[in-house]
Amino acid sequence: MTPELVVFVAVVLAAVAALAWRVAGPPLAALALAATLASVALAVALYALSVETVGRGGLALGSGFWAFAPDAWHYDAIGRAVLAYWRTGVLPPQHGHPEYFVLTAAVYGVLGAHPLGPIALNGLAHGLTVTAGFVVARRLGSPHGAWLAAGLTAAWPSALLWSSQLLRDSLTAALLLGLLI
Known about the structure:
Blueprint: H1 3-24, H2 26-53, E1 60-62, E2 65-66, H3 71-88, H4 99-111, H5 116-139, H6 143-155, H7 157-163, H8 169-180
């Protein structure tokens, strides 16, 4: 990981903890921070494992990509093409919904073209989803339900897995819950 990426991950962790602390104090901050750390740690572990095991007939496609999340490779390739367009003027392939490709390219432009950059953003989204789920459940009138919602969101297996991949699911969940606040 580049120094810029390490600093970005540290900022992501601090932002998640600060927001959750402001919403419900240290317990929610700890839960949201743990969810974000779990997402980022899983991403780093899966990235390293994919680089190490590529070409051995398993699920690893290499360079941080897996057969169970084939869209991730596509987001990376088009994100790199958009970044190249910004730098050279050569148009990337056209897509009907370029938002995530543009976001990926922007992260690549700031942090370097490494899949763990946008994946760290997904870790941020996962931590924010924990906090947003807590807020939505609390607004529905259930303090105990708020903690249950936050805990389930933090530990939900598919939420952890998808937030550790270069996919847009985590950002979508965070934005949708954000709309409910």
